[in-house]
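Hi,

Apologies if this is the wrong queue. I'm a grad student, and the batch job for 4-oxalmesaconate hydratase from Achromobacter insolitus produced an output file that my downstream script rejects. I'm not sure whether the problem is my script or the file. Here is the sequence I used:
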Amino acid sequence: MASSMLVVTAHVGDFVWRCGGAMALHAQRGVDVHLVCLSYGENGESNAAWQGDAQRDGVKALRRAEAESAAQILGVSSLDFHDLGDYPMPDSADSVRRISDTLRRVQASVVLTHPEHDPSNLDHCRTFEMALRARMQAMAPGHGGDFVVPPQVLCFEPHQTELCGFKPNLLLDITEVWDRKWAAMQAMPTQRNLWAYYERVALQRGAQAGRRGKTAGTRYGEAFQSIFPAVVSALME
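Support response: The file is valid. Your script probably expects a header line. Output copied below for reference.
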C-alpha cells in the first residue's frame, strides 16, 4: 500500500479518540500518516491540567508532550502544531496555507478531519472549513506546479454524533490495532475521563462493522463520513 494520509484536528486529543485506529492501521500497512494539530486545546480541553499554580505555557507543553507520545505510538510520520488557541479558535489564512503546503508536499490521497457541523464545539467546524480551503488551494495550479490530485475527505465521528447530524457511510475494522489506539489514549492522561467513553464507541462501531463485514472477529471499529463521491469502476467486488 502506498500514498499518504493527512489528519487535521482542532485540538491535540482529537486524533487519538476519533481516528487513532485508522492512523495506526494505515501506518502499519506502510502508509505515511501526517498529522496537523491546530491548537493544544489548552483553554477548553485540558481541565485536569489546570491545577494549583498551573500556567498557560506549562499546560501547552504538557499537551504537546502527550500528543507527541500518542503520535509516536500510532506510527505518525510527521506532526505539525499550529498553536492557534482554542475555545474559540480563530480563523487563520496562514494555517490554511500551511495545510495546503503539507498537502502538496506529501501528496495525500485522503484527509481525515472533523465533520462540518458541531454546535457544541465550533473549533471543530472552523477546522473542517480550513481543511477544505487548504484542499482547494492545494488543487489549484495557480498556487504552484506541485498541485495535488483532489484527495477524498473523510470526517471522523464527533463526540455527540446525533447533535452533529453525522451519518457514517464507512466503518473501519480497527481490531488488529486496538491495543495501539488504547495505548495512545492512555498517553493522554489529561483527558483520561474520555478513555472509557471512546472504548465504548469503538466497541459499538465494531459490533456494527462485524454485522456487515466479510470476516469474523471484528471487535473494535471507527466510523467515517465521506464528503466527496467515490469514483469506482464497478458496483461489486
